[in-house]
Amino acid sequence: MSYPAEPWDLHGHAYVGAFLVPHAHLPAPHSPATTPITIFGRGIVSAAFFVYEQPSPLTYDEIMSTVLVREGWRLRVSITHIWVNSADSRDGGRELWAIPKDLADFQVLPHHTYVAEGIGALTLRTVRRLPWRLPLAFQIAQDRAGTLQVSPVAGRARLGIAGARWSFASDGPIGFLADRRPLLTLAVRPFALMFGHKSA
After folding, report:
1. What are residue 123's DSSP bridge partners?
2. pLDDT of residue 132
3. In angstroms, rounded to a whole number, what is the distance separating the alpha carbons of residues 184 and 149?
4. pTM, full prediction
5. What is the CA radius of gyration of the chain?
6. Measuring CA to CA, which residue among 59, 54, 191 is closest to residue 129?
7. Which domains does the chain have, with CATH numbers?
């Protein structure tokens, strides 16, 4: 096993764009046991660049797209598309949490420009940060061979609002976000998140 056991104690920064996407263009949740949450016929989709830094057990770059879903009445996050530049992270994500990670090439100038080749890019203009760190907690809902797997994520982060330009390859894997403007872009910097279940 070339990746650490769960939970992963992750540190770094991220920028997260929130989009409203018409139901007809929504990516399917990773697990059919969950249902997209819609507001006036639009689902809530995020795109995010993450940079995992020391003292994380693995350091790498990541781009993902998620859909806000529900399991019954419980809110969940479904990771539908995700790429990293670490084979260990790819393998760990797939085997521990059924997260469909693939590999991609990245060009990152921290807090300025983020590019995942053939997928998407982000250019930052301004960031207004809150003066305190806030608690974060949510659960990831993924499909593992027809069974719903729910994994917890919890920690703290300093949040802010970023002025940013997102772009996505229209013929790329998350082309459903091409030419769409986000409702907002959150700056999550820094964060400290515990991903996965603690060992008994």
Report:
1. 113, 165
2. 86
3. 29
4. 0.96
5. 16
6. 191
7. 8-195 (2.40.400.10)
